[in-house]
Amino acid sequence: MYAKYTYAAGSTAANVLADIVKIVTGETNKANLSANCDQANTDILTTYNVAGWSVHDAAGGTNRQVLSAPNSDTGTKYAVLDTNTSGFFIMHTAESWNAGTHVGTNVTNIGTGNQQRVNLTSGGVLYVYATARCIFLNSFQSGVWGMSTGNGGWSGIVERKRGVLVWDTLAAAYPLGCYITSYGGISSITSNVCQSPRIRIMTGVSDGTLQYFLLDTFNKGPSVSWSSKYFPATKLLDASNNPSYTIAPILIAGYNPFFMSGDLSQVTDAYLLQPGQGGNLDELTYNSKTYVVWNNLGGATPATTAGSLIVPKG
């Protein structure tokens, strides 16, 4: 599901939250959204995917709801959606969530600097890509894109592909949900680019909670310069059948020391676009599907330091 959700000036935090919850839980008729929805400038497309999430705890807190979706193999992941902090649409994930006590276990804690922004006074837009495997958001308000850190960019709750490492088995049941952002060229652990509720860490061979990860792109990574010759990449053709666009899977890697921890593209159908290619909201074709470009650092000009995201338009 791909949506362009436009909220009007004077919107309330409760209505924006309720509308996004409806969209990612399967609502396709914009007339059923709140009075704050600018219907003339809102679209909900399900050309290739349905949204796939369900409300798990509608009373998760003030202006906060918790959603759940099945993993691709077994178990459940959670998305905590929150509009109670002025100016932000905050997302977290958790290993588990008790809908009776409204409390989660190992809830991620990425700060507002790496969350999407909203402007309830002036109105704005939230672009949404959601399937049962992910919820990606990209905001536009007050003339600026995305997060407040790193000049903007997208973020999301994403399921990783299990089984990259031998300990990451069905029986071990490590949570598959991660919170990821596009901030900072995606090269430093201080960028808070990806956080998992719980996963095995190599130091001491023990479990670690709220662990950060590096998000590998074409030319970024832990102490290594990545390029397409090291990366499994696919060339996309332009209108003249020239190989003008290059995409690669979204891979996450642990640190201290470096170890591969998951493939996000296999289950989300979202990919990274080579740095410097594609303008924001450009449309590309891959495997007979239309994809939309979300620039890594926001704005109309593609970042040259890290790959932008492409997601199916529907």
Structural domain tally: 1
- Total count of helical runs of at least 4 residues: 2
Q: So what's the overall shape?
A: globular
Radius of gyration: 18 Å
Calculate the mean pLDDT score and round it: 82
Helix content: under 10%
Order of helices and strands: EHEEEEEEEEEEEEEEEEEEEHEEEE
Give the low-pLDDT segments.
Answer: 184-192, 216-232
Strand content: 35-45%
Number of E-state strands:
24
Major β-sheet annotation: 11 strands, antiparallel
Tell me the span between the first and last alpha carbons. 4 Å
- Output the structural class: mainly beta
Q: Could you explain the architecture of this structure?
A:
The protein is globular, with a radius of gyration of 18 Å. Strand 11 and strand 12 form a beta hairpin. The model is unreliable at 184-192 and 216-232 (pLDDT under 50). The longest helix has 12 residues, at 13-24. The protein is 5% helix and 41% strand. The strands form 4 sheets. Strands 1, 2, 10, 11, 12, 13, 14, 15, 16, 19 and 20 form an 11-stranded antiparallel β-sheet that branches. It has helices at 13-24, 265-268, and strands spanning 2-7, 43-45, 54-61, 64-70, 76-82, 88-92, 96-98, 103-105, 116-117, 124-131, 134-141, 144-145, 155-159, 177-181, 194-201, 206-216, 234-237, 243-248, 251-254, 259-263, 271-273, 283-286, 289-294, 308-312.
Chart the SSEs and their pairings.
Layout: E1 2-7, H1 13-24, E2 43-45, E3 54-61, E4 64-70, E5 76-82, E6 88-92, E7 96-98, E8 103-105, E9 116-117, E10 124-131, E11 134-141, E12 144-145, E13 155-159, E14 177-181, E15 194-201, E16 206-216, E17 234-237, E18 243-248, E19 251-254, E20 259-263, H2 265-268, E21 271-273, E22 283-286, E23 289-294, E24 308-312
Antiparallel strand pairs: 1-2, 1-10, 3-4, 4-5, 5-6, 6-9, 7-8, 10-11, 11-12, 11-13, 13-14, 14-15, 15-16, 16-19, 17-18, 18-21, 19-20, 21-24, 22-23, 23-24
